[in-house]
């Protein structure tokens, strides 16, 4: 049996630039083919163990951080987080999606679409804020779900986070090239290399790779310097947005707002499902909690403050567009540029392109920070090799994790046009937000060893009613958009499920700040995210299902055994400490207990 001294020797700081089998596969299950075959033979037992196991706040904030060998540097304030919020959310989406949805689905009522999607985003922001204050670690939603829903649910989330990070970065970098060429007044594909490869993979994009590499290099060098650069770029983007608002309303014609609902209420909600993704990226702030000087104060100010301001900005921008130009005349591919041209400001299209370019630059910059921190904590839990959890002793940044995301994203960005993967990206985001709302309800109403079993059964039952009724509402909307009778069943069921949870006693009170109106707001978040998921095409769910199958294969052959070994190794260490503290003889212990 290993002693505490021997275990501590294993985590002594070594050279950061190392690469051995032990750095990637230190777990007992992967020491040789014999131990691996034995681990596979125990798959069913281990899966049950991981399915039912839960982490806790202390393990996420203290024990797992030791896997990085060096701490991330606490250097951020609420001011940094607020600007990170602007940098991560305000990209090209507002410039692109507004024109498309105003022309195709909503007309002048596009402003209401942004109100609806903004409210939905704020519901998720509330959940993230409470968790980030209570569990201030780099893992964000992955860490929160490990605590409340267990390893398996956290793994599914982790896989979607990594998928979202890689595909999202690749998509933004490809868009960066397109906007850069438009700024030069050239064709969007003029700077890409044309090849004879399969359609969709035949336009190679070295500029996208270069932009990703530069953003990642800055993020790896220093979190503080990245924050400074984000301030500058976000401030420039804010100037462009202010110009759009002032010039837009100065040339507004209220007669363009009639009819206000050309496509009816259906069009408002269809557009809301699409423009919702212009709000994406705010979860990046939660991953900065470990580097925040005062998380309990700075995170609510940074996260809630930035998203509240962004929602107002988006609604004003959405209102200014159809006031400048009739919705039916809007160019869906270059909405603001054509709108300014229609009022005699043709030169403004270059400023709009510059604003979109600045926005995408900050999205890539903040994304490089946040995605690496997600990856770092996922590696700390050994869901992926722990080599990616290491934090550099000088820069105090996770260089290995940053390289992983950057290299993968660069490979996709170089070859793929990403037309197929964008819907997959959307469904992954909504799935994670829905899971976060479920986790918050579990956190408030269930405490291990305290909550009676009858209350646990009731909680699970009510959650299933909420989820099922929300899925029913979404399905009915998709199948019968002009009918209403089905909502008389699904909506009351959702209400009764939420009411049932509200009658249960809460087991936990937030220490500093908590989501108001629990369980109503988290339950509404579940409903809205599932509703928006239902608005996506069937092909998105097919791809999501295929990716999930691939993720499960990886989990059963690697992730399951790595996390099992880590968890039981930690249990063994805790047992040794208890024994030595109480002076109990080691011969009284079963050395094989809990270890495969």
From TrEMBL:
Pfam family, one: AA_permease_2
Signal sequence region: none
Keyword annotations of the record: Amino-acid transport, Membrane, Transmembrane, Transmembrane helix, Transport
Topology term for the membrane: Multi-pass membrane protein
GO molecular function: L-glutamate transmembrane transporter activity; L-lysine transmembrane transporter activity
Transmembrane spans: 75-98, 110-131, 152-172, 228-249, 269-289, 301-321, 350-370, 399-418, 424-443, 455-478, 484-505, 512-534, 540-562
Domain Cationic amino acid transporter C-terminal: 513-562
Subcellular location: Membrane
Family in the record: Belongs to the amino acid-polyamine-organocation (APC) superfamily. Cationic amino acid transporter (CAT) (TC 2.A.3.3) family.
Name recorded for this polypeptide: Cationic amino acid transporter 5
Native organism: Heracleum sosnowskyi
């Amino acid at each position: 049996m290993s002693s505490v001294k021997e275990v501590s020797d294993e985590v002594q700081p070594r050279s950061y630039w190392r690469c051995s089998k032990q750095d990637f596969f230190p777990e007992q299950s992967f020491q040789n083919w014999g131990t691996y075959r034995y681990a596979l033979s125990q798959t069913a037992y281990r899966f049950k163990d991981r399915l039912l196991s839960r982490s806790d706040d202390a393990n996420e904030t203290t024990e797992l951080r030791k896997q990085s060998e060096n701490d991330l540097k606490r250097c951020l304030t609420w001011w940094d987080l607020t600007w990170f919020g602007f940098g991560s959310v305000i990209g090209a989406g507002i410039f692109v999606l507004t024109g498309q949805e105003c022309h195709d689905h909503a007309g002048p009522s596009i402003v209401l679409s942004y109100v609806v999607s903004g409210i939905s985003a704020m519901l998720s922001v509330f959940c993230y804020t409470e968790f980030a204050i209570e569990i201030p670690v780099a893992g964000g939603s992955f860490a929160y779900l490990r605590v409340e829903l267990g390893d398996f649910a956290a793994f599914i989330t982790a896989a979607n986070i990594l998928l979202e990070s890689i595909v999202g970065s690749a998509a933004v970098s490809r868009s960066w090239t397109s906007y850069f060429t438009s700024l030069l007044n050239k064709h969007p594909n003029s700077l890409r290399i044309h090849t004879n490869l399969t359609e969709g993979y035949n336009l190679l994009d070295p500029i996208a790779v270069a932009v990703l590499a530069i953003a990642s290099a800055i993020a790896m060098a220093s979190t503080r310097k990245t924050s400074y650069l984000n301030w500058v770029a976000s401030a420039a983007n804010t100037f462009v947005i202010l110009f759009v608002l002032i010039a837009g309303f100065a040339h507004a014609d209220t007669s363009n707002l009639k009819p206000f609902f050309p496509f009816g209420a259906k069009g408002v909600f269809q557009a809301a499902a699409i423009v919702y993704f212009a709000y994406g990226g705010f979860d990046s702030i939660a991953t900065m909690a470990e580097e925040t000087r005062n998380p309990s104060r700075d995170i609510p100010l940074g996260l809630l403050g930035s998203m509240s301001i962004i929602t107002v900005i988006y609604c004003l921008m959405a209102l200014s567009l159809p006031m400048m130009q009739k919705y039916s005349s809007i160019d869906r591919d270059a909405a603001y540029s054509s709108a300014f041209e229609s009022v005699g400001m043709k030169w403004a299209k270059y400023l709009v392109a510059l604003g979109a370019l600045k926005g995408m630059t900050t999205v890539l910059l903040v994304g490089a920070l946040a995605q690496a921190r997600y990856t770092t904590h996922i590696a700390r839990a050994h869901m992926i090799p722990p080599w990616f959890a290491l934090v550099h002793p000088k820069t105090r940044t996770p260089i290995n994790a940053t390289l992983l995301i950057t290299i993968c994203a660069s490979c996709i960005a170089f070859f793929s046009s990403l037309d197929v993967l964008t819907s997959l990206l959307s469904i992954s985001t909504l799935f994670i937000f829905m899971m976060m709302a479920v986790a918050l309800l579990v956190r408030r109403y269930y405490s291990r060893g305290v909550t009676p079993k009858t209350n646990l059964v009731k909680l699970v039952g009510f959650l299933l009613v909420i989820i099922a009724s929300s899925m029913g509402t979404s399905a009915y909307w998709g199948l019968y958009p002009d009918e209403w009778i089905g909502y008389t069943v699904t909506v009351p069921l959702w209400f009764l499920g939420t009411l049932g949870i509200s009658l249960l006693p809460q087991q936990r009170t937030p220490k500093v700040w908590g989501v108001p109106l629990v369980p109503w707001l988290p339950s509404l978040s579940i409903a809205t995210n599932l509703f928006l998921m239902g608005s996506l095409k069937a092909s998105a769910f097919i791809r999501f299902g295929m990716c999930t199958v691939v993720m499960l294969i990886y989990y059963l052959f690697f992730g399951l055994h790595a996390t099992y070994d880590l968890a039981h190794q930690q249990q063994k260490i805790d047992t040794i400490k208890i024994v030595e503290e109480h002076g109990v003889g080691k011969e009284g212990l079963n050395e094989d207990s809990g270890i495969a």
